[in-house]
Amino acid sequence: MKEKIEALVSQLEAEIKDTNSLDQIEAIRVKYLGKSGELTQMMPLIKTLPNEEKPTFGKWINDAKVAMESMITNAKNEVLAKELDFKLAKESIDVTLPGYQFKQASIHPLSLVIEDLEDYFIGQGFNVAEGPELEQDLYNFEMMNLAKGHPAREMHDSFYVTETELMRTHTSPVQARFMLQAAGNPIAIISPGKTYRRDPDDATHSHQFMQCEGLVVGENISFANLKAVLLGMARHLFGEAREIRLRPSYFPFTEPSVEVDVMFTKKDGSKRWIEVLGAGMVHPNVLKMGGYNPEVMNGFAFGIGVERIAILKYGIDDIRNFYTNDRRFLNQFKGE
Ligand code: FA5
Known about the structure:
Elements: H1 2-17, H2 22-33, H3 38-42, H4 54-91, H5 109-123, E1 127-128, E2 134-136, H6 137-140, E3 159-160, E4 165-167, H7 173-182, E5 187-196, E6 208-218, H8 223-238, E7 244-251, E8 254-265, E9 271-282, H9 284-289, E10 298-305, H10 306-314, H11 327-330
Parallel strand pairs: 1-5
Antiparallel strand pairs: 2-4, 3-4, 5-6, 6-10, 7-8, 8-9, 9-10
This protein binds adenosine-5'-[phenylalaninyl-phosphate] (FA5).
């Protein structure tokens, strides 16, 4: 009996030597120690033996079981160690390989224009202010001298979100917000940001575009001051010899109002005026609603179409290029 038990242990030892997977080891465990395993099947024999032989037989069986389990555990550990070595060898880093070339991104042309505008206006003593894109009718229209039912509201076809809130149709509401915040003190701010109108999308119009608002409030501000600031801006953006032209226009929040054209020379050498912004002297009603006495304080304001500037500066023929994230388009602005 003892020989038979020892033979089973030797048999398991021989079989387990050649294994190289956990599945094979498990199959061997089942073969010897499973419910109907070869060693397990010998255990009931104990009942058939005389009482004095039972302890010895029990010890043989138990020693064999312990030996088999220990061989199985060792074999499993060896396989796991081999698998780990294999994985580590596969994952090792070859430091002699060339490094990964990171693609350099470029700054978006609209951001370039905004940075350029900020450079100029901060140099002139302006601060940069911000306002929300989801705006109240109160700031977008009413405090801009466009009471409900004002016909000029038609010029801004709007995205209303609730009865009283809309996606701002221009950056001018920042004027109203900032006047209230400044509480009667002088102001010189610009405010670039996104604006939204229910305009059809085509080569020159988008339902979402960008503007840069400007507002100056103080004592004895003149139209000549407005013109000087805008001429300086055009020369900063487009070059020293650049001329601008002010054309009479109408905005409910400025009086008098102008549209400003910049002179451009086409490729064939011919020159033409191109409109880039609206501007004017702040309307007395707007000053009053903002908490200023128009007899004492006055000011000027302007609203620049950022895409319009980028189109002119970089010679772009379709406004939709700014929003479609085509890397062939965007890569052209590397290093600008
Ligand atoms: C205004 O929005 C005024 N708030 C500007 C202003 C501010 C005047 C302060 C006086 C004082 P206007 O609707 O003209 O004005 O828009 C200004 C500029 O935004 C335009 O010159 C144009 O360049 C740009 N713009 C208007 N609509 C669109 C559009 N759908 N897509 C792209 N650009 C647009």
